[in-house]
Design a protein that fits this description.
203 residues; single chain; 2 domains; 47% helix; four-stranded mixed β-sheet; binds zinc ion; two-stranded antiparallel sheet; Arc Repressor Mutant, subunit A; alpha+beta
Length: 203
């Protein structure tokens, strides 16, 4: 499997996405994925209405040495951003730049289904989550928002208040509320039980 794309060794981007963002001076919110794609020399990012259930896809044409990402523009903006970040993850991890044609399609079944066991998809989701909500920035914003909304309270907040904080974070980072719940949990700010409560409340 070749990891060389336009003389860029993509394996060097496989550590924490925060380093990738720092490298290109993009560590600020909301994370600018369009700029990032340019730095990575991804040729095309197309927003279009895709067939049913398709969130997006990434396509590689070896002869042209061309990578194209497609994002379903009929979906909510936050979903589009998650798809975009997820496709960037596939670009970094999962494309063989030697083979003739490589295409990964994302439909509602494969994208952002954390309970589904597909290691490639899970890895792309995890990367997307870290890319859109880098730990360093996210932690700072969590406490800023908390102090803004509930200045007199301590950190032991119930589901309703955490939901309000999540809602504000979702606006700041331009991600969905469920994505925020996952991130709050993955960086250890809330427990698994609270994450579940938030999902219940969100329904
Ligand atoms: Zn995928």
């Amino acid at each position: 499997m070749s990891n060389l794309y336009k003389n860029i060794d993509v394996t060097k981007f496989r550590n924490e996405p925060v380093f990738l963002l720092e490298k290109f001076n993009l560590l600020k919110i909301p994370v600018d994925l369009t700029e990032l794609a340019k730095f990575l020399k991804i040729d095309q990012v197309n927003y279009k209405n895709c067939e049913n259930n398709l969130n997006g896809k990434i396509e590689y044409k070896a002869q042209e040495k061309e990578v194209s990402i497609y994002i379903n523009e009929d979906e909510p903006k936050t979903r589009q951003r998650f798809t975009f970040a997820h496709e960037i993850a596939h670009f970094i991890y999962d494309i063989d730049f030697q083979t003739d044609k490589d295409m990964l399609r994302e439909d509602a079944k494969t994208l952002f289904r954390k309970n589904m066991f597909n290691p490639i998809e899970r890895r792309a989701d995890k990367f997307a989550e870290q890319l859109l909500m880098p730990k360093e920035l996210f932690e700072i914003e969590v406490f800023k928002v908390k102090d803004k909304l509930f200045p007199t309270l301590g950190t032991d907040l119930g589901v309703y208040k955490i939901y309000q904080i999540s809602s504000e974070l979702s606006n700041l980072f331009e991600v969905s509320k469920p994505a925020v719940f996952f991130r709050l949990h993955s960086i250890g700010i809330i427990k698994e039980s609270m994450r579940k409560e938030l999902f219940e409340y969100h329904k």
